[in-house]
Write a structure and sequence with these properties.
The complex is a heterodimer of chains A (about 450) and B (about 280). Chain A is an alpha/beta fold and about 450 residues long. Chain A has helices at about 30-45, 50-60, 60-70, 75-80, 105-110, 115-120, 130-140, 150-155, 210-220, 240-245, 255-260, 290-295, 295-310, 320-325, 335-345, 370-380, 390-395, 400-410, 435-440, and strands at about 95-100, 120-125, 145-150, 165-170, 175, 180-185, 200, 230, 250-255, 265-270, 280-285, 345, 355, 360, 420-425, 425-430. In chain B, helix 5 packs antiparallel against helix 10 (about 190-230), helix 10 runs antiparallel to helix 12 and helix 11 (about 235-245) runs antiparallel to helix 12. Classes of the chains: A alpha/beta (about 450), B mainly alpha (about 280).
């Protein structure tokens, strides 16, 4: 019986088992459990004899005793310290998939920079050829968790374009960091109203890229389904397709955008933050089944990811990260390209050096409002049909409350609410009125 | 006119063609003018192709340098996504040989059955004719979905593409065994098993090996495409990973190695085939 199994329930006696997660019963959320573990450890230290301890607990009650103890022992500090080391890991060797783009920076860098090992995990990060393969390998449980476009866990949970499995987002990876890149031939055709007939690349049907590109085109009066062509092209193949003239441009992830500029093939028309500043892009995702079967491993894994994401968000760390993830084992790109994408000091392909430190950001907090917006766009473009309880789906996929606890445990500032309003191309999105929002678009499929 | 030529004429001609080809390649790749007047701060952020005018197409010397570097350390391991070309080739070969062996286990007995029984042959023929022309990669999504393992799916794809030539050739070879030999066997009252193993098998062996030779060639073609699709390991993944970095010199290196290994596989089965070929 491990040390943390005696908590404040005086009826629990040695050898009978307890409700704690180390024995696979409890589904209590991580930080509560850690709090209990710490309290019971302190209690055991103060009253080493089990019989005394139980008698005391019975007579004065757990809450009173806890409060009394906290008078002379900093329980909260101890809880935060213990948060560094969750209970025994069910599984320490893990496989995590990724697509070689900077959106996945925290997931990738956590390997060479030691964020996984800090939490006792031995993680292999596996490069994957495209989003459909990421989806299939994740559904097959070849990956324990994976880098996914944030709409993908929604599509999988709703059974859109795949078998239905419950997938969840414990942390968003990155915000902003995408761009619309056009071929050099379009230097004098910057107005999207003149883009009728062009062919664009987008990484996946269920991607923020697809929704943002469609949004941008529709705001210019173009119907993205009939006036232009949007082709699905895996990010690593976008530049090659732009060079071959198969597409005229794309809304792609970095470093793909910067790579097109680096090779003199195209220019950055706008950054995605010019469409929606602070939009989510990719997520760290895992299945509900994995979380239920490996609660402690999941806790350690999501801590490692949130810790790495917090680290990635600091501007002063960006160059170090670029050097860590550029080699062939990860992104396989020239470091200078990755550095431009991450630091926001970049060549735009038109002869200017732009300094935009907010080009890419990393914020783990999975706002439920992001999910509601994604669902409105799935409906808008006919991917999702019928009545949808937006808030309920968003809440079940995005683990905002858990993320807040993890962030606070790691000393990051977490927002106090799970929802917020935001502005996309001048229009305010209110997550409590998704139907009105959807109805306000003149170009839509439903 | 059929002139005699010395044994050295063909190899010498091959070398001449190679040298001419490499020289033409080296000359065809030329750098464009450096972009004039580029802001130095901007130029620092741009690639060689965009600012110094270096051609994006590698010269034979670039590829040669890559080849030397790759052969110097063919089995390095820099993590799950970056291994040496030797390791990658070994992964691909293992997949091909496994898929190919499975296909042989299925195709050769089935081919015997079809060749020996016109009824079964006619009954299975429509299925074979429909399935044979399907690109093996079209099976990949179904394999991933049902087998639920990307590595086994790649092996399945190799299996499905290798099975048809072996099946057809075995059936053809078995059906084409001379009537006289079968009649002699019949007269001598040879049992069905003995007849299959000591009369039909040796007689059909050259045709069966031809089928195997075609199969291994197709399998080697397909593995590269399959690995580019699912990623992970293998020479196809190597090519994909370098495509991702637009490193044409590495891609050409991959192509060269794929060609050499494919030739070696073909030669091996060619030697095996000539060992079982009989002369009248």
């Amino acid at each position: 019986m491990s040390f943390h199994c005696e908590n404040f329930d005086p009826s629990v006696v040695h050898g009978q088992g307890c409700g704690c997660a180390a024995h696979g019963v409890s589904t209590a959320s991580g930080d509560n459990r850690i709090g209990e573990v710490v309290r019971s450890a302190v209690l055991r230290a103060a009253f080493p004899q089990a019989a005394h301890r139980r008698a005391l607990l019975k007579s004065v009650g757990a809450a009173t005793l806890g409060a009394a103890l906290s008078q002379f022992f900093p329980l909260e500090t101890a809880t935060a310290l213990a948060a560094e080391a969750p209970g025994p890991l069910e599984k320490s060797k893990l496989k995590v998939g990724f697509i070689p783009i900077t959106c996945a920076s925290p997931i990738i860098m956590a390997q060479p920079m030691g964020f996984y090992s800090k939490y006792g995990l031995d993680v292999e990060v596996i490069k994957t050829a495209g989003w459909a393969v990421v989806r299939d390998k994740s559904l097959n449980h070849e990956y324990d968790a994976s880098h996914m476009l944030s709409p993908m866990p929604f599509a999988i949970s709703l059974g859109l374009g795949s078998v239905q499995q419950d997938w969840q987002i414990p942390a968003i990876e990155n915000i902003n960091g995408q761009a619309i890149v056009l071929a050099n031939a379009l230097k004098d055709r910057r107005d999207p109203k003149t883009w009728k007939g062009l062919r664009f690349g987008s990484p996946f049907d269920f991607s923020m890229h697809n929704y943002l590109l469609r949004y941008y085109l529709a705001e210019a009066g173009l119907d993205p389904d009939t006036d232009v062509q949007i082709r699905v092209i895996p990010p690593p193949e976008m530049v090659a397709n732009l060079r071959a003239g198969n597409i005229d441009g794309f809304l792609g992830p970095d470093p793909v955008n910067q790579r097109a500029v680096f090779d003199g093939l195209g220019f950055i028309h706008i950054l995605s933050r010019d469409i929606w500043d602070g939009h989510p892009c990719c997520s760290f995702s895992t299945s509900k089944a994995f979380i239920a079967e490996n609660p402690n491993t999941f806790l350690a894994l999501s801590r490692a990811i949130i810790d790495a994401t917090g680290y990635a968000n600091k501007a002063e760390n960006r160059k170090e990260i670029a050097d860590a993830i550029a080699p062939a084992n990860y992104l396989n790109q020239p470091p200078i390209v990755v550095e431009q994408a991450l630091t926001g000091v970049f060549a735009d392909g038109l002869g200017n050096v732009i300094k935009q430190p907010l080009r890419a950001g990393f914020d783990p907090f999975p706002w439920e409002s992001f999910g509601v917006w994604i669902l409105t766009q799935m409906q808008r473009w006919g991917q999702l049909k019928g009545e949808v309880d937006y808030a309920a789906v968003a809440k079940s996929v995005l683990l905002a409350t858990d993320a807040r606890k993890q962030m606070e445990g790691l000393g990051l500032t977490a927002p106090t609410s799970n929802t917020k309003t935001f502005v996309v191309m001048g229009k305010t999105f209110d997550p409590s009125k998704p139907a009105e929002y959807l109805a306000s678009f003149p170009i839509r499929r439903s | 006119m059929q002139g005699r030529h010395s044994a050295w004429a063909a190899p010498i001609l091959s070398v001449v063609i190679l040298v001419l080809f490499l020289a033409a390649w080296q000359l065809a790749v030329h750098d464009t003018q450096p972009t004039a007047g580029m802001d130095p701060e901007y130029a620092k952020l741009m690639g060689a192709a965009a600012n110094t005018g270096k051609s994006a197409i590698p010269t034979p010397l670039d590829v040669g340098a890559k080849l030397v570097a790759a052969l110097r350390d063919p089995f390095y391991d820099h993590g799950p996504n970056d291994k040496g070309v030797g390791t990658q080739l070994a992964f691909s070969l293992a997949r091909v040989l496994l898929g190919f062996a499975l296909a042989a286990i299925v195709a050769i007995p089935l081919g015997f059955l079809i060749g020996m029984s016109p009824l079964i042959g006619a009954a299975l023929n429509p299925f074979i004719q429909v399935l044979k022309p399907v690109s093996p990669l079209a099976w990949m999504p179904i394999a991933l979905y049902t087998i639920k393992d990307s590595d086994k799916s790649a092996i399945f794809v190799i299996f499905i593409c290798s099975v048809w030539p072996m099946l057809m050739n075995t059936a053809f070879g078995v059906a084409g065994v001379r009537r006289e030999w079968l009649n002699v066997a019949h007269t001598l009252e040879v049992g069905a098993w003995r007849r299959a193993i000591f009369v039909i098998l040796p007689a059909a062996a050259p045709t069966i090996f031809t089928g195997m030779r075609i199969s291994i060639g197709i399998a080697w073609l397909v593995i590269v495409a399959a690995e580019m699709l699912v990623g992970g390991t293998g020479i196809g993944y190597f090519v994909w990973n370098q495509w991702n970095n637009l490193s044409l010199a590495d891609i050409l290196l991959g192509i060269l190695l794929i060609g050499l290994v494919g030739m070696a596989l073909d030669r091996l089965l060619g030697l095996a085939a000539s060992a079982v070929t009989w002369r009248e």
